[in-house]
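Give me structure tokens for this 205-residue protein.
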Amino acid sequence: MIDHLVYATDDVDRTAKDLADRLGVAAAPGGRHLGYGTRNALISLGPDVYLEIIGPDSGQPPPAGGYWYGINSIQTPRLVTWTARLEHIERVAAHAHAQGYETGDVHKVFRETPDGERLSWRLTMPTGAGDGLVPNIIEWDPGCPHPSETAPKGVELVNLRGHHPDPDAINAMLVALGVELPVERAPLPGLSALLDTPRGPVELV
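Here you go.
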């Protein structure tokens, strides 16, 4: 269900180095999101799950519609959302719409890897609803290798949980999508991922 966690930063290289010190595993360059002005670095979190460190790509112009997650203005790197992997993404989006939750349009997205390979998938773009606790939905194109297979290994995702001032509202959106996430009541919204690493347990927020 969990495809990947999205850790946003204004500087991918600096944040990847900081995380390598904390986790004991260095992220590998993932590639560039062509047309969206971003690039990433990746760490596998176990079978079919990975951590994406995403930030602006100085080799691309800023996107006309603005950066995903407002990453150009993020001062402290943090988990901004997660992405759920589901089949028949258009059908999922239509069902959520019927349940009163708008996923946003499904877009075709490409990433160019450092060795020139092009990965492709379909994705619902961030809408801001759910304060990052309600995931984007992804469906990888047939034959496209999952990034967890090639990203550096050694870190395992133990659990992912959310906290929010109105957990009932968040849970209603999650139900509309057909996904699950434990959400606790708290003054501020956010995500927390417990990781098993070579450095011991690490909580990533």
